[in-house]
Amino acid sequence: xxxxxTALACLTLATPAIAADTIKIGLGVPMTGDYAPYAExxxxxxxxxxxxxxxxxxxxxxxxxVQDSAADTQTAISLAQKFLDEGAVMLGTIPFSDTMIxxxxxxxxxxxSIFQPxxxxxxxxxxxxxxxxxxxxxxxxxxxxxxxxxxSLGVKNVVLMTSDExxxxxxxxxxxxxxxVEAGGGKVVAKMNFSFxxxxxxxxxxxxxxxxxxxxAVYISSIMPDISVLIRQLKSAGIDAYVIGSDGFDDPSxxxxxxxxxxxxxxxxxxxxxxxxxxxxxxxxxAECKEMGxxxxxxxxxxxxxxxxxxxWAVEKSGSTDPSTIADTIRNADSIPVVTVDSISFxxxxxxxxxxxxxxxxxxxxxxxxxxxxxxNTPTDWN
Length: 383
What we know:
single chain; 383 residues; alpha/beta; Rossmann fold; 2 domains; seven-stranded mixed β-sheet; five-stranded parallel β-sheet
């Protein structure tokens, strides 16, 4: 994604009790700017406070160090160095490969890894760095889960929206979706480019109308508010197509566009990181944090709970706070309990979590869980 140079914010958040020996996790994440809704610090802070209130881990508190990297890679690298010098045993950063890779390279000499609970980009699994974990599965899995549901609805003709600004997440995820749709008998009738921050989709809509065929679905891997604008403008233009996407759709502000007319969301669905409907583990966690006085505004912030839960589990299991030992314990575990799903494992995949891929939709303006499986027909051209 495009980077905007920002000044380093000086806000540091930590859990209240800091013991003589603490388990430090450093998060140089976007607390301001366009990507702030997708950062994990609130969930990490809440999970640390819950663990500390229960006695900590082997008698040690978890200290979550948080500072704002906004959308600037150099700031994120500087923060990583700062946290490493302060004794962090795990890091989190801006969840895009052009930042995660250099941060991981800085952390390597300290024996420290990155745990990014929401990163789906395939670049991180290409062997460039080996001190990296993501708590979710890569984009080809989410693309496949969404495509499988589209095919089950009888979708045939699809338009793919692509952008290079979000790396493989926005550029290649639509292509994997298209591959699965075509393997299932559908057809990609057009591929169109877009830029983040688009507020006028009329050029793409005009191109769709000029195709000479009905468009059953539009797939895009993008962020809010771009998505909500696209949904409204397609409907206003009389294009009655499904609008399908990935985890970028999983933002409470998307739900809000159905407040006046819930039917606008009837043909919207997306594959995402974890079930996020009412009654899910994520929404229960968010409610618990609210009772503690911590606002965790949605799924992405809640994923930080997994970072803290995984580190705490590894320290307790190994009896060590050595970062290399923590990483080895995580990588060799058959099952690690987390918040967003029942458990995850890196034993077979090494860098990304084996877990189910939920597809979320809407009924009467409310989120519903459509499916939650590990797709068996995921494209293999990414690894």
